[in-house]
Amino acid sequence: MLALLLLCSTAFTGLAVTADTSESVSQTGETYPGATLISVQDYEYDGRLIEVTQNGTVNWEFDPPNSRVFDAEYLDNGNVLVAVATREDPQNCPPEHLAQREEECVHNRVLELDGDALQHNETQIVWRYTWYDEFVQHHEVHDVDRLDSGETAIIDMGNNRAFTVAQNGSITWNWNGTKRLGEGSEFDQQYGSPERQGPESDWTHMNDIDQLPNGNFQLSIRNFDVIVEVNPETNRIVDVIGQPGNHSFLYEQHNPHRLTEWGTVLVADSENDRVVEYDLESGTAVWTYGGDDILQWPRDADRLPNGNTLIADSLHNRVIEVNTAGEIVWEYSGVQLPYAVDRKGVPEERGETVPGWQLEGRTENANAAVGFVRQVEGWASYVFPVWMKLPELLSLVGIGVTTVALVVDFTWPLVSRRLQSDED
User: Which terminal residue of the chain has fewer beta carbons within 10 Å of its beta carbon, N or C?
Assistant: First the structure.
């Protein structure tokens, strides 16, 4: 057992020393030009926002302390809008947000960063909207969107609401998800909805908001497996894409994007390890890319003007650009849990696009054993360093098992003699 412990320890040390933790880029085909904006959630609270060139150079970095960074977008004025969730020590938390957990709270911040300052790696906040919440996990602000009116649309996951604020910080519209999705609502009566476990539960996990050309808002309700369209004048849900529990259609999706001119919606279908584009009228998939042998928990996908698709492949810790033939032509790897991606110069919505039926899809699934191993590796990253894959995890398990066995082996004779003495 001592020899086995030494062997496992040596193997783990060697793997740790030689592990590659750097960020790198590779390009194997024609890409759409421009820098890429990547928001990095991170497995702990070391998130950041970076702008990366085609050759992998980081133009600038916004690195807020003790935070996770979610959606970000370029604004027409050259600034950058970003959603930041900061874990605060209790002395910085309002008392009402320490009622159930005394050790911390989350400070949700919507920030507009000066673009010129960012080019000099400086942070200058020109506008902000913030609030506190009780729980750090699943109560972070995930999506923000600057509207043509100058207002800012925000998703408040912790309070199951979507709202807009004016530049002076006043709330100009508010949508109550508890009222519109919960028990007794029109939605619940027609589609059914997951049971709510309590006021602080991760019930809806609303994670995206976009304003459509008709003025309505498109909301992604992740835990319901649906995308809804809401009329802000009446607050009624006027259209639903997907159905709660129908995981073959959508399964805990992120960041749906309407390709308005084609009548489709492009979705990061996260738990199905794919990106899928649906025709809104027929509900049929016109393009699919992924499978667990290609993607692992993707959470953003943007169709570029040349037909390429930019994807945040979250649990593979990379951002990829896929061409019209379904081939990876650009990859930026080593980013810890990327959340959202945007190509500079490409509008967030209503830009020039290519429909999925003009593209080649690709779906590849690993066998059950390989798929399970990859899933374990992916979720283990929340506990262990991201470079720890199956060999490192097995070495660590070996260290743990042999250590426990040795402790038992050395202590059991003492315990046995003590028990025998007590019996005598």
Answer: C
At 339-379, the pLDDT tens digits run 999 999 998 777 789 999 999 999 999 888 888 887 788 77
Domains (ranges, CATH) in the chain?
Answer: 1-19+388-424 (no CATH), 25-386 (2.120.10.30)
Instruction: Give this prediction's pTM.
Output: 0.91
Q: How far apart are CA 59 and CA 143, in angstroms?
A: 23
- What the block records as the tokens of 301 is 């996908």
Residues 318 and 338 sit within 8 Å (Cβ to Cβ): yes
Q: Which of 257, 259, 250, 379 is nearest to 314 (CA)?
A: 379
Q: How much of the chain, in percent, has pLDDT values that exceed 90?
A: 74
* Range 351-356, long-range pairs (CB < 8 A, 24+ positions): 351/305, 352/305, 353/259, 353/261, 353/262, 353/303, 353/304, 353/305, 354/303, 354/305, 354/306, 354/307, 354/324, 355/259, 355/262, 355/264, 355/277, 355/286, 355/287, 356/264, 356/266, 356/277, 356/286, 356/287
Rg (CA), the chain: 24
For residues 229 and 217, give the distance between their C-alpha atoms in angstroms, rounded to a whole number. Answer: 6
Q: Which helix (H) or strand (E) holds 421?
A: helix 390-423
- Strand duo 362-363 + 285-290: pairing: parallel
